[in-house]
Design brief:
The protein is of the alpha+beta class. The chain is built from 13 helices and eleven strands. It folds into three domains: about 160 residues; about 140 residues, no CATH class; about 170 residues, Protein Transport Mog1p, Chain A. The strands form two sheets. An eight-stranded antiparallel β-sheet has the order 4-5-6-7-11-10-9-8. Helix 6 crosses helix 8.
Length: about 550
């Protein structure tokens, strides 16, 4: 058999030849991305809601393989100036990612680089063909500014409110106390995992893959994703309602242990079946329109001249130099910055990361009966719904002074510094002011955030700080991309101390000063206990 001439190459062979011409440059670029991508996936695996990312990578690979074997579309190299522009954007974002040592931005730079490669090698046709791959990878990127946490709080609020209404209809005696359902003799805490965020993101990712794999239209996707989200929200409400009812009537615990996991798996299978059912429903509803369009297309083909033979793939005339230039820069930048971090012993990301999916052991913390002029009272009295907590474990103490009430809480474990503002906003509080506190004499940072809140004619002030396991005060993240973009390095386990006090009128200056003294003395009392117990490890 003779060797095919360039003008006789198939599309797949033509793409292989183009990739082969730039394989060294593409390899260099991938090598430069490896450090930040490795840290990105390590941090993603440490967050239960994003542990599905290996499945998303497999789905993106299947979509890429099918796009690579596209055989009915003529491809040409993209315009050189646009290829350079896309490569420049990828390099600039990658430069910012290395400056901040942000795996979140590093992943965005990698997506820009994939777009530049698809455009440079195959132009508009290959760009459109490979866009499903980019969309599939985009689903594993956490949103910036903690928006995923806002979604968690909203899902948890919807789940508790709707479940409480259903329990009323089922005549289950209970009281809704914030995110807690109080049954006779038992508390059911709807935690972050029980908010449905894990199945919410996973099922939407599965729905996205199926729509892209079946080559559905954009409007199809815009109908399928909201339907999938609704299924997950309703399913989570049903799970909490059934669990609370089973505990109330038959003392059967379905919301913890292996029963909880089995229940969740069964619901996941139901969600997947519903995703396929919605797809079939849309096929049925659109069948008349699709049949009419198919007949019209067939008539046009009969009336048209015989189609010309498929156009061959022309030899690549794209910018080899552009890919070589970008590949060298990405490799030198990525490996150079990683080596610098490694030699400096700092934020290289190789240190073991805390596993927030494993509940931390509960600490035995205590508070004195009197502190800063406040009197500690029985923890079972007072307004239990006033304070918002997020960790697996939370310990509360109630204090009174001159008719005012304050609640001090320790909340853990958290993913680094978590601003409790998100929790209060998710339950209806409006933030009137947010301040970071400094000493007035020398402007020393107190690593404390003060929130002034308002809700339904009620006013409150919240003080909160977060420390690590060694008692070091953590600063709020200030870089782009939420926790994954925090320039302080890998996420540490956070332990939050907070205080809330309020009433039906704004706090006076004297009341605020008194509450502030109580908070700082409480923090000074609790943090040494916390560090000592963590250092000793679990009791034998």
């Amino acid at each position: 058999m003779g060797t095919n001439h360039p003008e006789e190459l198939s599309l797949e062979a033509g793409m292989r030849s183009r990739i082969r011409a730039s394989r060294t440059n593409l390899f260099l670029a991938v090598l430069g991305f490896i450090p930040l991508l490795w840290l990105f996936f390590r941090l993603s695996w440490n967050r239960p809601a994003y542990q599905f990312f290996p499945l998303a990578l497999v789905g993106a690979g299947l979509l890429a393989q099918r796009a690579f074997k596209q055989s009915e579309t003529k491809i040409d190299a993209g315009k050189r100036w646009l290829t350079w522009l896309l490569l420049s954007v990828a390099v600039l974002v990658f430069l910012l990612a290395n400056y901040l040592w942000s795996p979140w931005l590093g992943f965005i730079a990698f997506l820009f680089w994939l777009i530049a490669v698809s455009w440079g090698l195959g132009g508009k046709s290959m760009f459109k063909t490979f866009m499903p791959v980019v969309l599939m990878l985009l689903i594993i990127l956490p949103p910036p500014l903690g928006w995923d946490q806002v979604l968690v709080l909203w899902l948890r609020s919807v789940a508790v409110d709707a479940s409480s209404a259903l329990l009323d209809a089922l005549h289950v005696t209970h009281v809704q106390d914030g995110n807690i359902l109080l049954l006779p003799g038992k508390k059911l805490l709807v935690e972050e995992a029980c908010s449905g965020i894990n199945s919410f993101i996973l099922c939407n990712a599965c729905c996205l893959f199926w729509v892209l794999w079946r080559r559905r239209s954009l409007w199809w996707l815009l109908l399928a994703l909201p339907a999938t989200s609704l299924f997950v929200v309703l399913g989570n409400v049903i799970r909490i309602t059934i669990g609370a009812s089973a505990d109330y009537y038959w003392h059967l615990n379905l919301l913890s242990g292996w029963r909880h996991e089995t229940f969740g798996l069964a619901l996941l299978l139901i969600y997947w079946g519903l995703i396929l059912s919605v797809d079939q429903l849309l096929i049925f509803l659109t069948r008349p329109v699709r049949s009419r369009r198919a007949r019209q297309a067939a008539l046009r083909r009969l009336a048209a001249q015989p189609p010309p033979p498929p156009l061959p793939v022309a030899p690549w005339s794209g910018s080899v130099f552009g890919f070589r230039f970008a590949g060298i820069i990405l490799a030198l930048l990525g490996l150079g910055v990683f080596t610098a971090h490694l030699l400096a012993g700092g934020r290289h990301g190789l240190a073991p990361l805390p596993n927030f999916s494993v509940p931390a052991r509960e600490l035995k913390l205590s508070m004195p009966t009197q502190l800063a002029g406040w009197q500690r009272i029985n923890a079972d009295v007072g307004d239990q719904t006033l304070i918002e907590t997020l960790g697996v474990h939370s310990t509360l103490w109630h204090f009174q002074r001159l008719g005012s009430e304050a609640v001090v809480a320790v909340d853990y474990p958290l993913e680094g510094f978590h601003n409790v503002k998100v929790c209060y906003v998710g339950t209806g509080w409006q933030v009137l002011k947010e301040e970071e506190l400094f000493l007035p004499q020398n402007q020393e940072d107190l690593h404390t955030v003060r929130l002034t809140l308002e809700k339904s004619l009620r006013y409150a002030v919240v003080y909160h700080s977060v420390v690590d396991a060694q008692g070091n005060l953590l600063a709020p993240p200030k870089t782009l991309g939420g926790r994954l973009a925090n320039s302080s390095g890998p996420i540490q386990t956070g332990y939050r101390v907070q205080l809330i006090t309020g009433g039906y009128s704004p706090l006076s200056s004297a009341a605020m000063v008194s509450a502030e003294e109580l908070f700082f003395q409480a923090r000074q009392t609790l943090v040494p206990q916390l560090v000592e117990q963590l250092r000793k490890g679990p009791a034998k």
